[in-house]
Structures are given as C-alpha cells and as structure tokens.
Amino acid sequence: MHIYANPTRFLSLAKWLTPLLFWSGLVLSVGAVGWGLFMVPPDRLMGDTVRILFIHVPAAWLGMGGWAGIAISSAMLLIWKHPLAAIAARAIAVPGMVFCAICLATGSIWGRPTWGTWWEWDGRLTSMLVLLFLYAGYIALTEATEREGGSNKIAAIFGMVGAVNVPIINRSVVWWNSLHQPPSITAGKSAIEATFLVPLLIAVAGFSLLFGGVVLMRMRTLIAEAQVEARLRRRALDDDAPVAAPAVLEQA
Amino acid sequence: MKAKHQRLILVIIALIAIVGAGLLAAWGLRNQANYFYLPEQMVSAPPAVGQAVRLGGMVQKGSITTAADGVTVNFMVTGNTADAVPVRYSGILPDLFVEGSGVVAEGSLGPDGVFKATNLLAKHDENYVPRELEGMGTEQAAKMAADTTVGLK
User: Fold this and answer.
1) pLDDT at A200
2) Contact A116 B133 (CB under 8 A)
C-alpha cells in the first residue's frame, strides 16, 4: 500500500485502471438499471415503483461508502502523511455528495407513492440529510484550504469526526422506530427475493466501479493541477530572478 | 518512526473518543428520536390528550370499518404485544394501506382513548417480493425471500 503513496507509481497504475473501472462500471450500471427498469416483475405491494430500488440502494451505499473512504484517507493523511491521501479524500468528496443527493432525491420520489409523503423527519432520512450537509461542509473546507492556503489537517479531522454519522445512518432504522423499513440485506440473509436481488447486486457493483473510475479521474486531475501550479511558480521565480537582482543592488 | 507511532496512537484515541461521543448522543436520543409511538408504548405511557404525536404499528386484520359517511375509517393498530390502539381517520387513504400492513398515523389521543389521526402514512416492510407471489402475508413473503436467496449471499 505504501508503494502507491508515490505519485509517479500511482499515476502509472491509474493510467490503465481508470478507463477499466469507468467503462466496466458504466456497462454494468446501465445493464443492471435497464434490467431493473424493463425486465423485473412488479413488487407485490409497491408495483412498478420498486424499480427505483436499483438506483436508490447503490446511491445510498456510495454516499455512505464515500464518507468511509474520506475518513480512511484522512486517517492515513494524519498518521503517515501520505500526500496522495489528501488528494484521494478530496477526489471522493464530490462524487460522494452527488450519490448522497441522488439517494435523497430518489428516496423522496419513492416515498410519495409508497408512504404518502415526500419527506418526513425520521431517523434514517434526517441522518442521510446530515451526511449531505457534511459533504457540503467538507468540500467548502478543502476548497478554502486550497485557495487560501493552510493545513489540510483541518479537513482531515473534519472527515474523521464526520464519520460518526455513517454508523448512525446504518443503525438508525434499528435503534429508533422509523418510517423507513429496517435493513433488507443483513449479514448472511436477504429479505429481497432473488429476481430483485441479482440485478440489485450487479447495480451496486457497477455503480461502485464507476465511482472508483471517477475518483481516479479526479485524483489524476488534482495531481495535474498541483503540477501545473508548481511549474508556474518555478517559472515565475526564474522570471523574477533578473528583476530582483537590481533591487538588491539598489538597497546595497 | 517514533513520531509516526505517536500520531497513530493519537488518531486511534481521537477516533475512540469521537465514536464514543456519537454513540452516547445516539443512546441519549433513543427515546426522543423515535419517529412514532408503538401501541404498547402508547398503552403503558400514554401521551397527554391532544398532544400531537405519531402512532406506528400494524393494521389489525379484520379491524377496518368504514363509517356511514364513507370517508371515516376506524381500525386497530397493534404492535409486538396484545395491546391495540383504536384509530379514527377521515380522508384519503394511501395506496399501501391494507389490513396486516404497517401504518404510521399522525394525530393525537382523544379523551375517549381513540387516536384521532389527521394524516396516515403507509409503512413498507423490508421484504421485496414479485407480484406473482401476491396475497401472501409479511411472514410468508419474508420466508419466501429467504428461501429463494439461500446461498446467494
């Protein structure tokens, strides 16, 4: 793992891994969502609205998984000071927030016909909304650090503190009475029938690969941006050198 | 080497403290953050008459009766025990509102012990089963789903 903390090694790995993850993820996601939309039979109670499951669940998984990734990267940054860990955490934040928002939006659309409400302040819904705000705060914090300068430790600490919310989201339907149903898939057993479960698992795998591809793309972009900035700074210093010299002479 | 280990220990201690604080907060909220009262909770510790609360549970089989005006329904909500709370509601019922299914009623407890609902929300259970298997209850559906997915997970 420490080998890939070296940006050059990472870049050579990411170069072929990025398109592989992205395209395989895209094919699997589109296939699984198409399967869920057109081939799966309607649910016994919910009818056709069950099809939103194939977007809602992968989005929820990645919204929470994204923050777990930010927390792990933040811990690696604080402990081992890996330069790549900060870049990874920043790269995860935007797609993580997008999937969190997709989860909330699809959940709201699903809630209207199923529960009879767009939004209720129940434990699961509220904790997921808090996660969206955490993402927004994290992105604002990293952007501010990037522009104003300053330590990336602050964002890393925020990333780790925010991780408290992830198990709360996961357990919210077990700890508290909630409108959202308890977990369907728990260790070793599933309350989702195989006709729904197979495309759902493929969708989760596909969305995850896609997420990985997007994160690698963003990491490469962030590294390239940092390199551009370093080069510009070096060139600016070279240009300044002859100008700076007479100034020193004047003072002398 | 030493500084690295020091940071590792610091981060672990910080993580334990943060998670501990989060769990304590969640534990402290365990009664306040409940979205609704269960029938047994409402029977053993009833909220004040007229106080806006939610009641959640299962619609008892065979308990739905429609009043003469055609829009008022009366039914019993049960939980994990034998306790049942009578509910009265006037208005449009959600699609998933059926006997033996989950429901959340918003409203208040009347002086006569009948819960007067101002809004009804249908609660979906965690089972997802295709329509060919329609007509089976929650336990059957859960068993069916568990049977067909053995070995998959």
Assistant:
1) 93
2) no
What confidence tens digit (pLDDT) does each residue in A110-133 have?
A: 988 888 889 988 889 999 999 999
A61 has a chain B CB within 8 A of its CB: no
Hunting for tokens 């300044």 — which residue is that?
A240
Cβ atoms A162, A138 nearer than 8 A: yes
- Residue B3: its H or E element: helix B2-28
Mean pLDDT of A104-112: 93
- Name the residue type at position B26: A
Q: Which residues of B touch A151 (CB under 8 A)?
A: none
- The domain B35-123 is classified under which CATH number: 3.40.190.10, 1.10.3720.10, 2.40.50.140, 3.30.1490.20? 2.40.50.140
Rounded to whole angstroms, the Cα distance separating A173 from A179 reads: 8
Q: Would you say A32 and A206 are in contact if contact means Cβ atoms under 8 Å apart?
A: yes
Q: Per 3-state DSSP, what percentage of chain B is helix, strand, and coil (rounded to 5)?
A: 30, 30, 40
d(CA A240, CA A52): 59
Q: Show the tokens assigned to B136.
A: 């089976």
pLDDT tens-digit map of A144-171: 988 887 788 899 999 999 998 998 898 8
Work out whether the CA dihedral A140, A142, A145, A148 comes out positive or negative. Answer: negative
Determine the 3-state secondary structure of A60 from DSSP.
Answer: helix
Contact assessment for residue B64 and residue B34, using Cβ atoms and an 8 Å cutoff: no
> What is the domain partition of chain B in residue ranges?
1-32, 35-123
Q: How near does any CA of chain B get to the CA of A219, in Å?
A: 25
pLDDT in tens, A60-85: 999 999 999 999 999 999 988 888 99
